[in-house]
UniProtKB/TrEMBL annotation:
Name of protein: Molybdopterin-dependent oxidoreductase
InterPro entries documented for this protein: 2Fe-2S_ferredoxin-like_sf (IPR036010), 2Fe-2S_ferredoxin-type (IPR001041), 4Fe4S_Fe-S-bd (IPR017896), 4Fe4S_Fe_S_CS (IPR017900), Mopterin_OxRdtase (IPR006656), Mopterin_OxRdtase_4Fe-4S_dom (IPR006963), NADH_UbQ_OxRdtase_75kDa_su_CS (IPR000283), NADH_UbQ_OxRdtase_ferredoxin (IPR054351)
Organism: Candidatus Mucispirillum faecigallinarum
Residue ranges constituting the 4Fe-4S His(Cys)3-ligated-type domain according to the UniProt record: 79-118
Cofactor requirement: [4Fe-4S] cluster; [2Fe-2S] cluster
GO biological process: ATP synthesis coupled electron transport
């Protein structure tokens, strides 16, 4: 039976648990808000969203007052306006409208509200003690501007899942402080985006420009395959800040990692090594050397390595060039995932994750297997936190360490000696209470998800064990199976195909041309050894870092922010990257480089992104017109669930080093290029020398790191 609430003389249906504000928003009825943020805990602190309810003597906060059957509400009476105005004037006693000297003036909810209510200034403003800006690592906090709306605290707790800040003290002394000194969190900047007055600021943007001087360019973040929408604030071809877009949030890499494009260490002209020294060269001379390097020892002995940053168009074009010329071709994703990716495809029919992140959010039980979200895909953690908040989802982690969000989990297991497979076997059959409790969760719930990450792929010696665990959960219950990975286009890389690592090692290539790939210790270490053994090594790159220093030829390349293309997201969504800034003059995109090298081989490689996508769309699981779609487009997936044959074998308990992703950093883009620009401003906090667990469950720190493993940031 429908229930009705009357708002401004019109009847509307509502669901149990709806607030008055939620009903009003759903029906396009404007109620001004300040402290309110959709889908998180309401505080009712600002009193700006007051409405009049028949039978109630005083106006009520619509954000926290629940709708009731037969309730009659008025949102715009003179009495309501008077109370809202008084509430706003009270706030403005602490935050005077000094908009002329505020860099946030045109991006301020408080100023917008003052304009709506006709308030230009407030009398009787008392001068209070001035507080200097507080340095919160990548953030700055202006206590004098803060209106204590609690939005930052609420979003940090309920969306980011960090609990990194809170209100301390009372009365006039109340203010926001970090939970730890200095602030050490995900640095996702949700607190910055949620602040209605700019009291929390991005430190890199301070003293840069006024917000109204920026042109915002909307695209998809290029730092991982989650596919968060992002706005880049650009002025005179330089990125100054980032903001959220289309309801997405962005992690520390997306928010602050763009500084690499303007680094004075960037390669802007071709380099040819003479002896041990790189010398600047003409582009034609450099490409001529690349061509001869790939052909002098027989083109069949040459290898193209395609990194996980390449677009679908670049991947397919380079694979086409390899096929047409007879060169070998391998992707970084093929090496990282190894045989597991193919086992996954045999089981489910595709390489990208099963289900979507939305299905993770709707799950009742989520198994997180070796995935440290802070080091891989922070956006996946937000979906997990949302499932906890909205569904009271039971999250079970099995990892090599305790994670930052561990106190929110139903149960946390440590996989000693990286024996994840052993933990799966215990869940299936052990008599211990904790494993029996997990079996009960599996049997009593219908929507279960699995998330597998870096620690699992790098540590587990029996990788098909997790696929067998999916069988144990069952086809009817498994809603999502997410594979976290730190490179943008791992799924597109795997669909491109090519040689296996065993085939390449056996062939012993004499020449290597590596694109968007700078392998180091860890899962891609074999690629580094292949490069070191080759007689010739060429690469388009932005910096002389890591393996690039060993190259014979280095070509200046456009960054992903300086070109466009399509990518396959973590759950099969088509991601379209738009160009944000122009590149330096001599830089070419990887697609343009394929075209130029193709001319040397007399093979045609198309450089038009749209044209290339239309040619390859069906091959990678889309329609030709999907590139122009304004709505999210997902790959057409096979929906199969083949049984995995697996028998657990006891492993030898020997100590091992397992390389994991460095927190906040991403390869040469943010880890090695740690400073840039005239002010030598650090992009992120110092790179860790070792791993410290995020949450201490006991007084003994050894209880929070798996036995027999040493975790080292690569």
């Amino acid at each position: 039976m429908d229930r009705y609430i009357t708002i401004n003389n019109n009847k509307y249906t509502f669901k149990e648990g709806d607030t008055i504000l939620a009903v009003a928003e759903r029906n396009n009825i404007h109620i001004p808000v300040l402290c309110y943020l959709k889908d998180i805990a309401e505080t009712g602190a600002c009193r700006i969203c007051l409405v009049e309810v028949e039978g109630v003597p005083q106006p009520v906060a619509s954000c926290s007052a629940f709708a009731a059957d037969g309730m009659v509400v008025y949102t715009d009476t003179e009495e309501v306006k008077k109370h809202r105005r008084k509430a706003l004037e009270f706030i403005l006693l602490k935050h005077p409208l000094k908009c002329g000297i505020c860099e946030n003036a045109e991006d301020c909810i408080l100023r917008d509200l003052a304009r709506q209510m006709g308030i230009s200034e407030v009398s009787d403003v008392q001068e209070e003690e001035h507080h200097p800006l507080q340095d919160w690592n990548m953030l700055l906090y202006d206590r004098d501007s803060c209106v204590l709306c609690m939005r930052c605290v609420n979003i940090c707790r309920d969306v980011a899942g960090c609990d990194a800040i809170d209100v301390v003290a009372r009365g006039n002394n109340a203010h926001i402080e970090p939970a730890t000194e200095p602030l050490n969190c995900d640095f996702c900047g949700m607190c910055v985006d949620s602040c209605p007055v700019g009291a929390i600021k991005d430190k890199p943007f301070m003293d840069s420009l006024k917000v109204w001087e920026l042109e915002y360019i909307n695209t998809v973040c290029s730092f991982c395959p989650v596919g968060c929408h992002i706005n880049y604030g650009v002025h005179h071809n330089k990125i100054h800040r980032t903001r959220i877009s289309c309801g997405s949030h962005i992690c520390s890499k997306g928010r602050y990692g763009f500084k690499f494009v303007e680094s004075d260490k960037r390669i802007k002209t071709p380099l040819i090594k003479k002896g041990d020294i790189f010398t600047k060269a003409d582009y034609h001379d450099a490409m001529d050397k690349v061509y001869h390097g790939l052909t002098d020892n027989g083109v069949e002995n040459s290898l193209i390595i395609a990194g996980g940053w390449l677009s679908n168009e670049e991947l397919c074009s380079w694979k086409s060039l390899a096929d047409k010329t007879g060169m070998m071709f391998i992707t970084e994703a093929e090496v990282y995932f190894g045989r597991f990716a193919h086992l996954f495809k045999e089981k489910f029919g595709h390489y990208e994750s099963v289900g979507t992140l939305q299905e993770v959010e709707n799950s009742d039980v989520i198994f997180v297997i070796g995935a440290d979200f802070a080091r891989e895909n922070v956006g996946v953690k937000w979906s997990v936190i949302k499932a906890i908040r909205n569904n009271n989802a039971k999250v079970i982690t099995i990892g090599l360490q305790r994670y930052d969000y561990d106190e929110r989990t139903f149960l946390s297991l440590i996989a000693d000696y990286a024996d994840f497979a052993g933990e799966f076997e215990k869940i299936k059959s052990s008599d211990k209470n904790i494993y029996a409790a997990l079996r009960k969760q599996i049997s009593s719930n219908k929507k279960i998800s699995i998330i597998a990450g870096n620690e699992y792929f790098c540590g587990e010696k029996q990788p098909s064990s997790i696929l067998s665990f999916a069988d144990y959960i069952g086809k009817d219950k498994l809603r999502a199976f997410i594979l976290t990975y730190d490179k943008l286009n791992y799924a597109g890389s795997l669909y491109t195909g090519g040689n296996t690592l065993d085939e390449v090692i056996k062939a012993e290539p004499k020449a290597v041309f590596a694109l968007a790939c700078n392998p180091s210790t860890g899962k891609t270490e074999e690629l580094m050894h292949i490069i070191e053994k080759a007689k010739f090594y060429g690469t388009p790159d932005m910096f002389l870092t890591g393996t690039v220093n060993k190259a014979d030829v280095v070509l200046p390349v456009k960054s992903v922010l300086e070109t466009e293309g399509t990518f396959i997201g973590i759950d099969g969504r088509l991601l379209k990257i738009n160009q944000v800034v122009e590149s330096p003059a001599n830089c070419k995109s990887n697609l343009e480089t394929a075209h130029i090298l193709g001319e040397y081989f007399r093979k045609k490689i198309d450089t038009d992104i749209k044209s290339v996508f239309q040619k390859i769309a069906e091959k990678i699981g889309y329609k030709a017109e999907d590139c122009e779609s304004a709505e999210p487009v997902y790959r057409v997936k096979e929906k199969i669930f083949n049984k995995t044959d697996f028998t657990y074998k006891d492993i030898e308990h020997t100590e091992r080093i397992i390389y994991v992703n460095p927190r906040h950093h991403e390869g040469v883009l943010t880890k090695i290029i740690n400073t840039c620009g005239a002010d030598d401003f650090p992009i992120f906090p110092e790179i860790e020398k070792h791993i410290s667990p995020g949450f201490i469950r006991s007084h003994n720190i050894e209880d929070n790191i798996a036995k027999g493993v040493k975790l080292i940031p690569r």
